[in-house]
Known about the structure:
Radius of gyration: 13 Å
Strand order of the largest sheet: 7-6-2-1-8
Mean pLDDT: 87
Structural class: mainly beta
Distance between the termini: 27 Å
Number of helices: 2
Strand content: 35-45%
Order of helices and strands: EEEEEHEEHE
Amino acid sequence: MSKASSTRLPAYQRGDKTVYAAKITGIELCQSRQHDYPGAMTLLFGEIGKRSELKPVWLNQYHPEIGGYFVVEDGDDGYHKTTYESEAAFNKNYIRNQ
């Protein structure tokens, strides 16, 4: 799971569903020594001054790109599901909560 918590990301709405997301402004090789995952990357969220370290399996599944959005969905069971949305898809489907 990523280090980004839904409580630290801006909230967005799609119908009756709330998600937490941040625009990806950079992607770099993970420099952290907290884990042994060759190929781990850090997503940078420059607009909000945050970052998230992600395992290669997540990166290979979603193929995030700069300009797209890192999305966190809170499940009913307390689990945070993280996904990726392209900029065009995200802007079409979600509205930022005020």
